[in-house]
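Protein 1 of 2
SEQ + STRUCT:
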Amino acid sequence: MPDAARCQPATGSGIVTFFSCDPKEKSYEIADLKHGAFTHCVLDAISNGTCATVAAIDKHLRENVPVLNRKYHKPPQLPYTIIEPSEKGHLAIFFRELAQQPASDVYAALFDRLGELMYSQELDEKNFDEAVDFLEKARKSSILNEVDNRRLRFIESLCLGKLKPKSFEVVWKEAARREPVSPPKLL
């Protein structure tokens, strides 16, 4: 007979399970995609780096799978995720290219590259200052919200040469426009 203590769940453990559809639904292959809408959306999230956490990929799947099924004239399909405990939703699931380095090296490399772009006058002073301020804040934070994760990816893309400085300026302004507004503090 197994020891009762061994049958108890480990403290701090958890499980995350992504399902392609509700148990009462079916998932469908889409010939044009060469796989189903669920798989397509998972691959899209990986290749685009749009989802850094469990909660972000859950949201991405719930929003995009039904759209693809409608587009390809398939019956409704709504993915769902079981996150136990729910606090595990903030866990990182996909890692960006720079994020695979130690965090201190990543930020040092980003600061260095931003300095090079500023010195060569490819990046204007305002965007340089805002990007440096943002990196300082991000380096001190253990968890970034969705907008801040995107802003970090924009800086990474700029520093890796995947995004031109002028394009960076456009998306940086848009990210600032969408930044969540803090509620007023009560006195």
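Protein 2 of 2
SEQ + STRUCT:
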Amino acid sequence: MSIQQLLPIGLAFIMFAVGLSLRIQDFKDVVLYPRAFFTGLLNQIILLPVIGFILIYFYNGSPEFALGIMILAACPGGITSNLLSVLAGGNTALSVSMTAVTSLASIVTVPAVLAMSYMVIYDNSAHIEMPVGRVMAGIFLITGVPIVLGMLVKAKIPNLTTLFQPYVRVIATVIFALIVAGAFIANKDNITQHFLDVGLYLVGLNIITMALGYASARILKRPRADSITISLESGLQNVALAIFIAVNVLGKPELMIPAIIYALIMNISAAFVIMLVRKTVPENAITHS
């Protein structure tokens, strides 16, 4: 099977794993303690695309790579952000809730951001249209449906789900790594050729979003655990979803080059954050407000 055939299955399983870790109570907690959640949500849904638009304004390279940057900027956080949030001492419940809600919201937000990106990147005279309906349908089937199914399975057979959930998460993480590795191997010549062209802008996207995510949370007096989570959720995008949109929905493999490069960049920056956090003295726990 080709990566184009494996991508939908692998991504659906990853999102199913996210659903397995969710309870209705997680969404109730969002309502009860909204400040941290909505800080992260604004960073991811509003601030991240805005930063992406600013970066591509100064980018003079391939329009396809500019659109690839915006696909990344439009995508929600992925399952790796949940794992790395745990390793960095973040707020795990907040991380999972943000991933789930932004993943469900992406059914609407991603097509909207990409439609605007098309208008900015491509001259209207080129008569190129973004297939918004197809993007929305693809994200709904690969993201929304598996998350809801995962939540249903957890609600119906909670004991069995609790037993197998750690293994499912490991499998999902491995699948994510295989998707990125497979895409990298298939496109290694293009990546090597264009790394310097687009890499600096991707580093900028990652560092700026993570820094602003952390800063905005601290300005709003959020606990350090919440601030770490918001930072990671802002800078660690669902690269598998970005690759799926590029290859399976839009049918343009060249659009996934920025996503593959970004996968390397975001994991390096996350490792640096984890190292930095572990060298500092833990902050006393602060209750939600």
